[in-house]
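Hi X.,

You mentioned you wanted examples for the new student's onboarding notes, showing what a folding record looks like when two proteins sit in one file. Here is a clean example. The first protein comes first, with its sequence line followed by its structure tokens.
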Amino acid sequence: MSLLSFESGYSVRTLKRHFHQYLSKPPMLSVFPSEKVNLIIDGTYFSNDLCLILYRDNTIKFTQLYRLTDGEWFEELAEDLSNLLQLGVQIESITCDGHKALLKAIRHVCPEITIQRCVIHIQRMCRIWLSRKPKSEAGRDLRRIVSGIHLIQNTIQRDYWIVDLVKWHDTYKGYINQKSINPLTGRYWFTHKMVRRSFMVIKKALPEMFQYLYNDRIPNSTNGLESFFGHLKGHLNIHRGLSGKHRKQFIQWYLYFKNKR
């Protein structure tokens, strides 16, 4: 700010006043009504429980809608989807990370729309749960299978991958269903919960994991938005002194200028 003050001839106080006036009037985004929109929906969190949820048209790289809130809630997500439909956005597919509230909202508002689960998110979470070097043979074999998800580019590769997964389950179903029991309370838990959790996530997501193979307009991951969020946070970190209110306004201006580009 001192350098800008020196170069512009304005005092730091005057510059701050101008910047604050500018930030205080963020423009509204304009929805771009179009057919066969392939949305990527994802949220990211900032400090003080600030959550930004973006509804981004993957084809034209355009943010159709956003919400600044404190979490990913069903009521808000359902309202946003309803508003998009009413404003003329004809959604063909939605790619998302599988957040329960979002899946519930999609199935409630637009159940006919194709859902594509983010394969990179599934892969990443399974790798975290299985760890880099699983101790069990079941964990090592499942990690090998999980590591190939992002390489699937056609239905033949998908079918071979599913066969590999089914064989894994036939081999280790007794292992992942093994239970440990507390003799005092009678309560039980799955002994190998991380391996079981990884498999169950894949099993539940499987019907919605490979929609992109039938429509090349459908993105198979939310990586595009994660990169977008990374750039936004990088720019925001340069202005770490902004108040909470001004941080929100900065984000609104950022989204506006990104759409203009």
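Then the second protein repeats the pattern, sequence line and then tokens:
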Amino acid sequence: MVDQAVSGQALALLGGSKTINDDHSSMFKWPIVTAEHEAAVLEVLRAGNMSGLDVTMKFEEEYASKLKRRYALACNTGTAAIHSGFYGLGVGVGDEVICPSMTYWASILQVYSLGATPVFAEIDPNTLCIDPNDIEHRITERTKAIVVVHYAGMPCDMDPIMAIAEKHNIPILEDCSHAHGALYKGKEIGTFGKVAAMSLMSGKSFAIGEGGILFTDDQLVYERAILFGHYARHNKLELPETKRYAGLPAGGYKYRMHQLSSAFGRVQLKLYYDQIREIDKAMNYFCDQIEDTPGLAPIRPGYPNSTRGGWYFATMKYAAEELGGLSNVRFAEAVVAEGSIANAGCNQALHTHPIFSEQDIYGHGKPTRVANLPEGATLSQPIGSLPVSEDIGRHVLALPWFKHYKPEIIDQHVLAWKKVAANYEALLPGDKPQQRVGGFSTFMRGR
């Protein structure tokens, strides 16, 4: 047994020999840039067509066709795509938008500029995604939308969420920025919500350099999103609700995608689904060997015919109580010292940041979060109100994100992780457990 073979070995962090000494950087390099990518980008560059629309509109058409969605609108960032999606849905002054607190800020913070208020929900500790059982009781007469975040590559449990949305006639906005290509019971994420939006920056699993995109089947939502930040496309507006305002961006925003990104994206769209199949094979191979290790439980979809989306920010649950109370921070340090890759924690729960409790951003004379609520209405979600989201960072480890299925290399990383788990007692004397692990932008930089 591997565990027995490494038991009693001195850990590298404590002066022992490293498990991995070879350079495995090629296993983790992303995106994988091909000659076809380079040719597509150079064609746009040499034509001086970086700010055009033709390549971007082809990218939109091809991606929408892949998802079988009626409309796609490419933006310069995922933040812009989500912002445009909120405006497309009509989110405005006095509205409330439900969102998990465990996510990157760009899933929700844009509603402030529209005069709306975030309402945070708990996560399921076994998936790190929004808990379907913590949504319905947060709905009020002011609820305008529900944001579901397919967090860390995991598809949300969409059946009960869609049932709630349909019961209350509240639209869903899917934030797919972590999970491009994920399947929920055989159906690809990004196809459930009235709006789906995602980041496409270079750190994501579908990476095109920088950019974002939204999808919808609703013409009004689509045209409002164009009206909001795509003034150069106002000639495409057809509906009376939008056409009469054509000419200037409704929000004063300019959200056009750079065509070097969309050119890269068209090529990536042809390659991505084959790439994530190999990533899925590699990551499941790693997880299959790790899952019987004390303290370590890879997070994988428990729904039939479901997959993680490209395994962006691949995670596992960490049970410190099975390893003598050893903190995940100390465990991760030891894994890294062995030559593998690990990181402790995840995003810090958004509701714990003062921007969601006390900051007056626009000079209302009161916290922005409640500035546009009706007189007498209050909304308080202080520290302690969402305990799962607040504590989850101490119970999560980020895994190596293998881009290729090469068992002989993956096995070395398995050995490094098992070596640390088998010799955890040696790490206990130097451990300094922390009350909270993670950060507001941890792992999710640059959406």
